[in-house]
């Protein structure tokens, strides 16, 4: 039976995802619409009508007198990770790194611990593993050449033991792999449960703030790719990073989801190999086919991930179908926007694909969701339908509306500068996109018909 509130006499149930409290149990949370997340909550104390005062632990000071050095970001030694973190990791910050099993989270963090210890900027590093034995981590460190005398390794699953290791070693960086395997004797529940994860994370956050110790936590993900555990876990930490990758590709993408100290939309690129993980500071070449002459059904564009422009290639294939309902297969693109482009091509561009199969994909496993890829998708489908190759050394950028108009997108100047740096000579852009670099000729197209006419120059 649910716990009664002392004043109201009503039962309380709390959502483990968003924290919403309701008086009676329901299957679906009315706040976050998650199913099966309401659990019995303890009785809440009565509201305080009067609060006494006490001496503050640290008196308030004028903002101009607050020391900035204690909040300066410290470089980890891995440029792509520092880019996503906003220049480095801030002392006392707690970072949550989430990703699917086998994507390379442990390898990346072991390399981070090695670079931190070898760089000497933050002293020694402590890597605590609760999923593997110390011998297994040592084997990985030998394989990736990540051994250093200032890199300490501990195999612990008890929170008190982890805190004891920190007290003894006083490291400059703490890595816990993973937060779901650490438990506290003072909290109820099983390891990895909602109560345990919340209690352990809260204790580690308090430890980080008290000592100015940067902490990186590894988190598991659910089947739909979200961070496992209660939603409050993401609110407790300062930075949330998502490590993504395809099992059939060596490319790995590190995305910032939340960052209190820098941009929350940056992306870092890595390549997973047999000897560890390596940075890819210039990944544009990974997302382009690299053929000398263009072929029908291709279009090159420049997407912006955070502040970084990346070259990307969209491919399309249109073929006759033998079925009553044509097939639509999409990989790396938003299937809803691709379907919308097919409808706009049919109505505004006289490119009929209603009786044919259409396949659309990106090169290199890249995922593109921004509207600026609308025009490249439309041109790739039209090129495949007409069996006409696009003009050589040409990129296309623009959002396409339902009326067939080409709309402006952000950061056109940076996109064109990146295309010019990689040797492209022409660009199809929306009207009023600003001044283009001298190395590239920008052709403004106001609607889809104009873009189709410019397809072959």
From TrEMBL:
<keyword id="KW-0479">Metal-binding</keyword>
<keyword id="KW-0863">Zinc-finger</keyword>
<feature type="region of interest" description="Lon-protease-like">
    <location>
        <begin position="357"/>
        <end position="457"/>
    </location>
</feature>
<keyword id="KW-0862">Zinc</keyword>
<dbReference type="InterPro" id="IPR027417">
    <property type="entry name" value="P-loop_NTPase"/>
</dbReference>
<keyword id="KW-0378">Hydrolase</keyword>
<feature type="domain" description="RecA family profile 1">
    <location>
        <begin position="70"/>
        <end position="221"/>
    </location>
</feature>
<comment type="similarity">
    <text>Belongs to the RecA family. RadA subfamily.</text>
</comment>
<keyword id="KW-0547">Nucleotide-binding</keyword>
<dbReference type="GO" id="GO:0016787">
    <property type="term" value="F:hydrolase activity"/>
</dbReference>
<feature type="short sequence motif" description="RadA KNRFG motif">
    <location>
        <begin position="258"/>
        <end position="262"/>
    </location>
</feature>
<dbReference type="Pfam" id="PF18073">
    <property type="entry name" value="Zn_ribbon_LapB"/>
</dbReference>
<keyword id="KW-0234">DNA repair</keyword>
<dbReference type="InterPro" id="IPR003593">
    <property type="entry name" value="AAA+_ATPase"/>
</dbReference>
<keyword id="KW-0067">ATP-binding</keyword>
<keyword id="KW-0346">Stress response</keyword>
<comment type="function">
    <text>Plays a role in repairing double-strand DNA breaks, probably involving stabilizing or processing branched DNA or blocked replication forks.</text>
</comment>
<protein>
    <recommendedName>
        <fullName>DNA repair protein RadA</fullName>
    </recommendedName>
</protein>
<feature type="binding site">
    <location>
        <begin position="99"/>
        <end position="106"/>
    </location>
    <ligand>
        <name>ATP</name>
    </ligand>
</feature>
<dbReference type="GO" id="GO:0005829">
    <property type="term" value="C:cytosol"/>
</dbReference>
<keyword id="KW-0238">DNA-binding</keyword>
<dbReference type="InterPro" id="IPR014721">
    <property type="entry name" value="Ribsml_uS5_D2-typ_fold_subgr"/>
</dbReference>
<dbReference type="GO" id="GO:0005524">
    <property type="term" value="F:ATP binding"/>
</dbReference>
<dbReference type="GO" id="GO:0000725">
    <property type="term" value="P:recombinational repair"/>
</dbReference>
<dbReference type="InterPro" id="IPR004504">
    <property type="entry name" value="DNA_repair_RadA"/>
</dbReference>
<dbReference type="Pfam" id="PF13481">
    <property type="entry name" value="AAA_25"/>
</dbReference>
<dbReference type="InterPro" id="IPR020568">
    <property type="entry name" value="Ribosomal_Su5_D2-typ_SF"/>
</dbReference>
<keyword id="KW-0227">DNA damage</keyword>
<dbReference type="GO" id="GO:0140664">
    <property type="term" value="F:ATP-dependent DNA damage sensor activity"/>
</dbReference>
<dbReference type="InterPro" id="IPR020588">
    <property type="entry name" value="RecA_ATP-bd"/>
</dbReference>
<dbReference type="GO" id="GO:0008270">
    <property type="term" value="F:zinc ion binding"/>
</dbReference>
<dbReference type="Pfam" id="PF13541">
    <property type="entry name" value="ChlI"/>
</dbReference>
<dbReference type="InterPro" id="IPR041166">
    <property type="entry name" value="Rubredoxin_2"/>
</dbReference>
<dbReference type="GO" id="GO:0003684">
    <property type="term" value="F:damaged DNA binding"/>
</dbReference>
<comment type="function">
    <text>DNA-dependent ATPase involved in processing of recombination intermediates, plays a role in repairing DNA breaks. Stimulates the branch migration of RecA-mediated strand transfer reactions, allowing the 3' invading strand to extend heteroduplex DNA faster. Binds ssDNA in the presence of ADP but not other nucleotides, has ATPase activity that is stimulated by ssDNA and various branched DNA structures, but inhibited by SSB. Does not have RecA's homology-searching function.</text>
</comment>
